[in-house]
């Protein structure tokens, strides 16, 4: 039986309890450290549910209690309730790199050890592998039924034994990491099912109201410092009121009354969004379908324009936060709803200086390169950049990562549009010109807006319609 360290039975989910009990079945010379936080050089924290120290490898693992059918790709996963989340692989890969850097700094001999840290995700509440189109699933995705077998197999593939040789130092180093904050299972009438940390001190939870009605909770930790607490509270409430004003436009989800909980937390409950996120939108394959997609793109831009007109920058745009609510009947239409405003900026006020200094572009395939300097460099044009990456991804079927790398490393976007050569050359040239306009590298002095982007998308609709074969 493996050695299990640091688990607080009162403040972990049922899925974490099941996972801990299962991991205890690993070999006797393995050690499992639970519920830790690691910090990068910018001060951003990453929660780690389990660190498994084997003989050849160290596994940095995230447990998810998600149920039902799960689909996804290398950017977004769609859960059974159609809610979309950023792939957990990305966060855990980054957390694993930080763990490796920490160990190499404190135990110098590990600098020459090669790959000794591997990340992964455990799905503790399903029995069938999810439909994830991402090669990382082959060595980094585990079910509760096979995790011990898979970890032993991965560990056996590399017989360097260096982890075992220095296991005492490694265990002491990683045990000294800060403990994860205690997470409640219930807040007033809301029962929390599962949650993810999306920014330091900001949680997003799936919950039920009065045990039955689904809700999404945004949980903001205001901390204990009286001055900082008041500043954060003022900002979050400003965000809450700004988005509350937008409810009448139908471009944001409906909120319930906010909760001040335990004199430290603000909780914003959101009602479920009806429809489908853009994650599930099928790639167009014909000129007519492409025209319809540009029409939809124009509608999305107009919805973002409404948000920008309220002096709100989203700063976290990806396909999972754009929802399509289609109505049928005599006058069918598609309403656009934006979600996940936890990184938003209202007027010139931001969540915190820490957030503005966060270099998220290296983790977010949809973020403009300007945000590699810091989140505070966001403007309307950087939101439009994210929309452009999303639209190119949907049109071409290429991953956002590939699209962004092509933009950064190539003088021409054309290689992203392989498969669309059948379009008239003048239309293809115009499509590329438009997207190059919105994905230029330096956007600080850009005049790009959601309104101008909507106009450009509509012009492409017209050109395609006038040149149908």
How would the global form be characterised? globular
Spans of at least 5 consecutive residues whose pLDDT stays below 50 are none
What is the beta-strand fraction?
15-25%
* Radius of gyration of CA atoms, rounded to a whole number: 23 Å
Distance from first to last alpha carbon: 68 Å
Arithmetic mean pLDDT: 86
Strand segment tally: 22
Largest sheet: 7 strands, mixed
Instruction: Please give the CATH architecture of the largest domain.
Output: Orthogonal Bundle
Portion in helices = 25-40%
Helix- and strand-based class?
alpha+beta
Can you tell me the number of structural domains? 3
Task: Say which CATH homologous superfamily of the largest domain is assigned.
Answer: Transferase(Phosphotransferase) domain 1
Architecture overview:
By secondary structure, the protein is an alpha+beta fold. The protein folds into three domains: 3-179, Trna Endonuclease, Chain: A, domain 1 (3-Layer(aba) Sandwich); 186-270, Phosphorylase Kinase, domain 1, CATH 3.30.200; 276-466, Transferase(Phosphotransferase) domain 1 (Transferase(Phosphotransferase), domain 1, Orthogonal Bundle), CATH 1.10.510. The protein is 35% helix and 23% strand. The protein has 13 helices and 22 strands. The protein has helices spanning 14-23, 88-106, 137-140, 147-156, 162-165, 167-175, 226-246, 287-309, 353-356, 380-396, 400-409, 425-438, 450-466, and strands spanning 3-5, 31-39, 45-53, 58-64, 71-73, 76-78, 84-86, 117-123, 131-133, 141-143, 178-179, 186-187, 190-199, 202-209, 213-221, 259-261, 265-270, 276-277, 312-313, 322-327, 333-338, 345-346. The longest helix has 23 residues, at 287-309. It is globular and about 70 Å long. 39% of the residues are buried. The model has no long low-confidence stretch (mean pLDDT 86).
């Amino acid at each position: 039986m493996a050695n299990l360290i640091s688990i607080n039975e009162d403040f972990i989910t049922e899925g974490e309890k099941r996972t801990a009990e299962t991991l205890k079945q690993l070999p006797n010379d393995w050690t499992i450290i639970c519920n830790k936080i690691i910090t990068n050089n910018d001060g951003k924290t990453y929660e780690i549910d389990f660190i498994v120290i084997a003989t050849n490898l160290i596994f940095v693992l995230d447990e998810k209690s998600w149920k039902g059918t799960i689909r996804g790709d290398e950017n977004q996963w769609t859960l059974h309730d159609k809610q979309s989340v950023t792939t957990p692989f990305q966060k855990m890969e980054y957390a694993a790199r930080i763990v490796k850097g920490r160990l190499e700094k404190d135990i110098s001999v590990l600098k020459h050890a090669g790959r000794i840290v591997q990340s992964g995700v455990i799905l503790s509440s399903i029995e069938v592998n999810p439909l994830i189109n991402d090669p990382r699933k082959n060595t980094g995705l585990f079910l509760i039924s096979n995790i011990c077998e898979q970890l032993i197999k991965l560990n056996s593939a590399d017989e360097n034994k260096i982890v075992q040789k220095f296991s005492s130092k490694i265990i002491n180093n990683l045990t000294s990491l800060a403990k994860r904050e205690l997470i409640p299972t219930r807040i007033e009438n809301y029962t929390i099912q599962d949650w993810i940390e999306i920014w330091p001190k900001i949680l997003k939870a799936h919950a039920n109201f009065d045990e039955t009605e689904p809700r999404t909770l945004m949980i903001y930790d205001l901390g204990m410092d009286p001055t900082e607490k008041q500043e954060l509270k003022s900002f979050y409430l400003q965000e809450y009121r700004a988005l509350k004003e937008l409810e009448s436009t139908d471009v944001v989800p409906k909120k319930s009354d906010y909760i001040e909980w335990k004199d430290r937390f603000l909780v914003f409950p959101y009602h479920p969004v009806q429809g489908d996120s853009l994650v599930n939108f099928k790639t167009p394959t014909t000129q007519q379908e492409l025209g319809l997609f540009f029409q939809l793109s124009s509608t999305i831009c107009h919805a973002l324009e409404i948000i920008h007109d309220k002096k709100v920058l989203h700063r976290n745009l990806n396909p999972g936060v754009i929802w399509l609510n289609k109505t049928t009947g005599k006058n069918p239409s598609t309403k656009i709803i934006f979600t996940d405003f936890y990184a938003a900026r209202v007027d010139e006020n931001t969540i915190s200086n820490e957030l503005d200094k966060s270099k998220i572009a290296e983790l977010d395939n949809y973020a403009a390169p300007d945000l590699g300097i810091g989140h505070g460099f966001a403007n309307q044009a950087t939101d439009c950049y994210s929309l452009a990456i999303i639209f190119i991804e949907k049109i071409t079927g290429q991953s956002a990562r590939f699209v962004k790398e092509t933009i950064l490393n190539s003088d021409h976007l054309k290689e992203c549009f392989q498969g669309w050569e059948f379009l008239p050359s003048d239309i293809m040239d115009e499509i590329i010109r438009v997207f190059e306009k919105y994905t230029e590298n330096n956007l600080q002095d850009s005049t790009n807006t959601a309104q101008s982007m909507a106009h450009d998308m509509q012009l492409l609709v017209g050109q395609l319609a006038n040149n149908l074969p």
